[in-house]
Structures are given as structure tokens and as C-alpha cells.
């Protein structure tokens, strides 16, 4: 099964009264799988009882939340790492700096190399819709075009769309497990 994508014909003109139509692609969200479903599947795949998986799931969630809110980049096993970020309003006067300037708090996820490679190798099924919502074309692609800049032309820096080119790690030069 591939990644489902929809390409919808939209007016992409920035000027009022002007029209410039183009097909804009976005990934389709299948559905959100709840924790119970994920825990059941993990129990089947691992051979461990659901209660054990559930306890581990809860503990890992608590640890990730606690460490990430302390400012750490936290590894998510088999996927990558996450950390918190924020946007704020800039001020010229240091006396005006306050938490009220924060306009948005969000999570930054940095996938590891394996998950990025798997995503690049997954086929894509595109359904094209015209501006009236009618299906006008369907495309199935198994090619693997580059999804991240490899020529260093990335305004975020590094070789990932979110910036950086690290696959995670402990931040320790001693090779520890990150729990020191």
C-alpha cells in the first residue's frame, strides 16, 4: 500500500480578483489510530502481553513529555527525535521581553535516516480533483524522487526540511545511552 495523496485544483493567485489555477498536493489522512489499537498490534508483533506494552507505552510517554518540556531533544525509538519549538514577536527593547511575546508553541520532529529512507521508497497514489471536486486523473508512482534537498540549498540548514542533518544521538561524546 502506498501513501495516498490528493491533488486539488485551487486558485493560487495572491492578488484579489486574479485567478491562477494549479493542482496543489497534500497527503490524505486515513484515520487516527488510538493508543489501544497501537498497543494491541505491538503486543501481537512482540509476543508480549498487552499489559506490559501498555505500561511501557505510558512510561515512555511520560518520560518523553517530561524531558522534552525540560528542553531536551528526546529519541522516539525507531522513528527519530522530537523537541519543542516556539515562535515569538521580536522586540528591540530588552525591557519588553516577556513570555507574552510567544505566539506559538509546537513540536519539531526530526526523523531518523531509516524512516526517511523508507518514506522515500514508498509508492505514492495521487488522485487529482478539479476545482469542482471531480476526479480527473489517478497516478500511481513507485519512483523515488528526492524528497529532501541534497545540494545544501535548504533555508532551514542541514539535509532535512526541518533543519539539521543529525539522526539523533545522546549529545554525549562518550557514547552513552543518553540517560547519564
Automatic annotation (TrEMBL):
Q: Supply the Pfam families for this chain.
A: HU-HIG
Lineage, top-rank taxon, reads Bacteria
* Record's signal peptide: none
Which keywords does this Swiss-Prot/TrEMBL entry list? Answer: DNA-binding
Q: Which residues form the HU domain?
A: 1-124
User: Is Nucleus among this UniProt entry's keywords?
Assistant: no
**Biased composition range(s): Gly residues:** 165-180
In its UniProt record, a GO molecular function of this protein is: DNA binding
The region called Disordered is annotated at 137-180
The reply on keyword DNA-binding is yes
- Bias type Low complexity, positions: 140-164
- Annotated protein name in UniProt: DNA-binding protein
Organism listed in the record? Segatella copri
Phylogenetic placement of the source organism: Bacteria, Pseudomonadati, Bacteroidota, Bacteroidia, Bacteroidales
Amino acid at each position: 500500500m502506498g501513501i495516498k495523496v490528493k491533488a486539488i485544483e485551487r486558485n493560487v493567485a495572491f492578488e484579489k480578483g486574479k485567478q491562477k489555477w494549479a493542482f496543489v498536493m497534500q497527503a490524505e489522512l486515513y484515520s487516527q489510530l488510538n493508543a489501544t489499537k497501537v498497543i494491541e498490534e505491538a503486543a501481537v508483533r512482540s509476543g508480549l502481553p498487552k499489559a506490559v506494552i501498555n505500561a511501557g507505552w505510558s512510561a515512555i510517554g511520560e518520560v518523553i513529555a517530561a524531558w522534552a518540556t525540560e528542553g531536551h531533544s528526546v529519541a522516539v525509538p525507531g522513528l527519530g527525535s522530537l523537541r519543542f519549538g516556539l515562535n515569538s514577536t521580536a522586540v528591540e527593547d530588552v525591557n519588553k521581553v516577556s513570555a507574552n511575546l510567544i505566539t506559538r508553541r509546537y513540536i519539531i520532529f526530526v526523523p531518523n535516516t531509516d524512516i526517511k529512507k523508507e518514506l522515500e521508497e514508498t509508492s505514492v497514489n495521487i488522485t487529482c480533483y478539479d476545482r469542482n471536486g471531480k476526479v480527473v486523473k489517478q497516478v500511481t508512482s513507485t519512483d523515488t524522487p528526492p524528497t529532501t534537498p541534497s545540494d545544501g540549498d535548504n533555508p532551514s540548514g542541514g539535509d532535512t526540511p526541518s533543519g539539521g542533518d543529525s539522526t539523533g544521538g545522546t549529545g554525549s561524546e562518550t557514547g552513552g545511552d543518553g540517560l547519564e
